[in-house]
Amino acid sequence: MISFESDYNNGAHPKVLQHLIDTNSEQSASYGYDRWSQQAKEKIRLASQLNSNADIFFLTGGTQANATVIDALLPSYAAAIATTTAHINVHESGAIEATGHKVITLPSHQGRMHADELHAYLNAFFNDPTWEHMAVPGLVYVTFPTEMGTIYTAEELEDIHIVCKHYQLPLFIDGARMGYGLMAEGCDITLPWLAAHCEAFYIGGTKVGALCGEAVVFPKGAPRGFFTMVKRHGALLAKSRIAGVQFDALFTDNLYMDISRHAVNMAMRMRKLFANAGLTIKDSPTNQQFVLLNQQQQQALSKHVLFEPWEPVDNVYTLYRFVTSWATTDDDLQVLANAINTL
Amino acid sequence: MISFESDYNNGAHPKVLQHLIDTNSEQSASYGYDRWSQQAKEKIRLASQLNSNADIFFLTGGTQANATVIDALLPSYAAAIATTTAHINVHESGAIEATGHKVITLPSHQGRMHADELHAYLNAFFNDPTWEHMAVPGLVYVTFPTEMGTIYTAEELEDIHIVCKHYQLPLFIDGARMGYGLMAEGCDITLPWLAAHCEAFYIGGTKVGALCGEAVVFPKGAPRGFFTMVKRHGALLAKSRIAGVQFDALFTDNLYMDISRHAVNMAMRMRKLFANAGLTIKDSPTNQQFVLLNQQQQQALSKHVLFEPWEPVDNVYTLYRFVTSWATTDDDLQVLANAINTL
Amino acid sequence: MISFESDYNNGAHPKVLQHLIDTNSEQSASYGYDRWSQQAKEKIRLASQLNSNADIFFLTGGTQANATVIDALLPSYAAAIATTTAHINVHESGAIEATGHKVITLPSHQGRMHADELHAYLNAFFNDPTWEHMAVPGLVYVTFPTEMGTIYTAEELEDIHIVCKHYQLPLFIDGARMGYGLMAEGCDITLPWLAAHCEAFYIGGTKVGALCGEAVVFPKGAPRGFFTMVKRHGALLAKSRIAGVQFDALFTDNLYMDISRHAVNMAMRMRKLFANAGLTIKDSPTNQQFVLLNQQQQQALSKHVLFEPWEPVDNVYTLYRFVTSWATTDDDLQVLANAINTL
Amino acid sequence: MISFESDYNNGAHPKVLQHLIDTNSEQSASYGYDRWSQQAKEKIRLASQLNSNADIFFLTGGTQANATVIDALLPSYAAAIATTTAHINVHESGAIEATGHKVITLPSHQGRMHADELHAYLNAFFNDPTWEHMAVPGLVYVTFPTEMGTIYTAEELEDIHIVCKHYQLPLFIDGARMGYGLMAEGCDITLPWLAAHCEAFYIGGTKVGALCGEAVVFPKGAPRGFFTMVKRHGALLAKSRIAGVQFDALFTDNLYMDISRHAVNMAMRMRKLFANAGLTIKDSPTNQQFVLLNQQQQQALSKHVLFEPWEPVDNVYTLYRFVTSWATTDDDLQVLANAINTL
């Protein structure tokens, strides 16, 4: 059955796979020093208009990237600020706390943090005479796009960054699905812009056409000892080539953005199918779509396609998630359209 | 100037101090094996009607006791559930997270957790198909009395314990100010009742007449390796006698309860002073009183007595805390009364 | 230039790669529930003669597997016992300590732990009246084969396991290069034997023909919450299929053992080349060979092949490592032979 | 029975106790801001000739001070270097590792680290091409006096400090028994000299006349966020006055040094008693004496005085520890002398 369950339910994009095939018989250095990792870094450097201070590392997954970067950026006594719906707060099994750091939560506006709420929180915190008795804010974490499929405007993100700079807090952007945000209709953020407006971010590969791999970027340079931190977190690949080769392919001929645009286009067509059927859909310009279904509707669709429950809403409705990827085809959407027609 | 800032702004209760003086020239074993620690444990055992499985340890402070007990009760992957206003969530500098554990928060009702909200949370959690991807609830933490000075009824606390038992989660009660709760008017909870309705609790000494010291009690026995955990947390006193002697005094001739009752009585008289002056006071039957004051009122009172801001409420009012202790005298209250009369 | 630097300087074994290609276009469940992971587990179960209590998990790398398993097996206050040369003690950037656990070291006999020294240590430890003031031994960690290329006999390993059982300590066997041990000449240990003589082990894929992946096996069942521990360590692959598919291939038609036997055979031929040239080689029946070279010899060989320094020995000699893998060919050995002939 | 078991088997020195009595009825600020803490800091500042950059904090115990300071000085990926016999390596239940940091060990020369071995280790470490794969040395920890009762000369300690500075590693000196070192015959180190030759040290109170308390000194200023680190480690006393008052007494009229000198004198007389009886004593100029006794001798002495086994030496002899303190009297030594005479 066709699955819209996630963007990690497929193999690699054919071009990524092909590059793995083409390079398989070559020998290489390891632990990040293979030639493809070097090439891929150069290509990411170019695509992000990074200067020579910038550092790039390849890790295997999102939770790992989040825990490693946050642990490296924070002194022991400090905490990460995130929204209540942030991946690090909800779906990482306490991986941040496992490194000794609290996650301080601010309200989530469909996944987004508001700069003014961040400012108000920090202002109140540092004016509290007992602030030294609390976990001290040490960085700000946002996701782009968010867990709810929404994106920030450049202005919104810049406002957050301005607050961060005012309080000398690094801004870290989790880009596990970054491409889908950059390619969303109405997005006024580019990779170079992003690199110029934060202290760390990563370009997700696992959910954007690779088998695994996230490219962690520090536009102004990595924190001291970061290589050792990666190793210490069990995040250093011996055969680092597997990340290098894949990102080399993803950043050749704009593949990363093409994959992302394709998935977003498919998601927008999916939205129309839901909307035309009179279903309630959450606002999302990216590859994750969230639809309210009652039990009967859910069961009817489940006969034809696979998808995941997101969260219960009330006694009647539950929110369900439908996700597109590089692999989503016209035929897949037709199957979904037919399924919707049975409602 | 008279200080109502806290219940740790005085020395030891005279009887506690006297016992330290009387025993000072005797030699003793160390690390918990001194004779006064043994005696004090026996007295606490009796006062709490503990059976022979119970274990008691003396630590020096509240944050330390919380971190050590929670770290010992939780497997690595598990989290503590607490209210948003819980001391472990707000005022311990991330000490729980420093041991690798997330603090999951539920709403605070004037400091109290509601059993039905706990139940709803746990029910939803374990019905979420992705629960294994999240920090798994591993214990429930409540404070008695709460940070807001309120107390639980026996029924409310029993309801929480029933939910805990249903989900096989230990219930841990932070009793940094336990005496003030037990001696509060209307309190239907006793030390033996408490010991029978949780898996761990502590009897606070620092804030109830001692120089330092908290008696951690595990009514059904301590988790394996707890002694080593205490040492590992830097919480093992070489001269353990200082805690032993003090608790020996506190649990002789009902001193602990007498100290607590005195402070509560003083606090109730303080409430009347505020109420008679038409000031808004939060509901609290214990030794901490919370009063709304505008800037003018605050400044007027500050000329005569010391007290602490608790939290801003709106543009006009701030909540202030006034605390009594074993050392609060009639004269102190008269000074406060005179100060209030100037408003 | 031909590289003998490591067994992770090549891509995947062609059959492993082919299986990735063949399955790439299929959709799958994620986070360990894909069909190939299930298949691969069944094949490992069969090859190891595991019973139905056994649990298997796929992680991406060795350091990650070590940290996750050790953190899951140990209570907070406990330590892992290992040799001084153990990978977890030397080359994991403190990944075990990062989880809060001490590594207690015993002497290394060419990488091996001696059962009698383990016994003597534990006997002394638990007879020390201050043992509760120390990090308490909580498990025993050995590598098979060891970091020095040596292996244990069944009797040696069983003796260690007997000591472990006497002290109720789980035995955990790091098998990052397990195949090369099992296929070594004179090895009297099999996969089923190993599974019956420890509480946890892993079958390394990264260094034995896969692109990445280690199969962690708990013959008597995983510690509670292990799935969440994997996630918490950033070790849970969203596209778990990449490990599943590779292990599915490795455990089809005995491929894992064939790869291992090939590399061992090549290493034995390499030994002869060194021996015939009068060079001093360390005793190792597996795919890693350690050779003493002076500077002149090192420079001469370096003109023809790549290899790594292991450790300085004296003013004249340094120990160098030469490693074979599935990819080592007759031609590669001929290049090495020619290079040796120039000495 | 007279106990020579430890220097924490007595109450407080009478002058320390008297100051607690004299100040008990005064109100004070808390969490370090009480007047006695401020006074005590000034006196320590003077006694140590600290400049205005220096920071001083009072913690309750040695293990706690070690874990808090080391955790604050090290970045996450770094390790502490210590001797194999160091307190942090042996007798702190893994408290350092609990903060995520490895303890790297160098040989112990009767408790002392040798500067040349430290230098050789660091030189080898940073020349190892794989150093980034290992826990990176981040500070050097020594004890003064050592766990074996020995002391460093100024030259020895300065040599260690020179190596530290060369590698930009802070030097941290555990002074749990500092006074006994400073007052040892032949000691050419003073408090001001010490403060000028390290980045952090503490002046132990618990073992030198106080009920509890260690004064942590950062001569060049505390690491950022140290107050919060203290709280986070459960090491912040609400009634901080108990440490402040005690150190105020200890640093009035040279009491700290007088106590120390007394105990050292008593220990030297004790040495003579052992020596005259032909017993083998370890070299120690401080208040801890280590004596070899066979079982018969141990049993004979045990009828008259209490003392502790230190470590087994061979089949016949065990090393025992005898400790003096402020409380050791002429009469106590006479009892010991009589006991020795029965051998």
Entry summary:
The structure is a homotetramer of 343-residue chains. Chain A has helices spanning 14-23, 35-47, 62-73, 87-90, 95-98, 115-127, 154-166, 178-182, 191-195, 226-232, 241-250, 255-276, 295-302, 330-341, and strands at residues 2-3, 55-59, 78-83, 103-106, 136-143, 171-174, 200-204, 214-218, 288-294, 305-306, 308-312, 317-323.
Structure commentary:
4 copies of one chain form a homotetramer. The first copy, chain A, has 343 residues and is α/β, with parallel strands linked by helices. The first copy, chain A, has 14 helices and 12 strands. In chain A, the strands form 3 sheets. A 7-stranded mixed sheet of chain A has the order 2-8-7-6-5-3-4, with helices on both faces. In chain A, helix 2 (35-47) packs parallel to helix 11 (241-250) and helix 12 packs parallel to helix 14. The longest helix of chain A is centred in the last third of the chain and has 22 residues, at 255-276. The first copy, chain A, is globular. The relative contact order of chain A is 0.18. At the A-C interface, strand 1, helix 1, helix 3 and helix 10 of A face strand 1, helix 1, helix 3 and helix 9 of C.
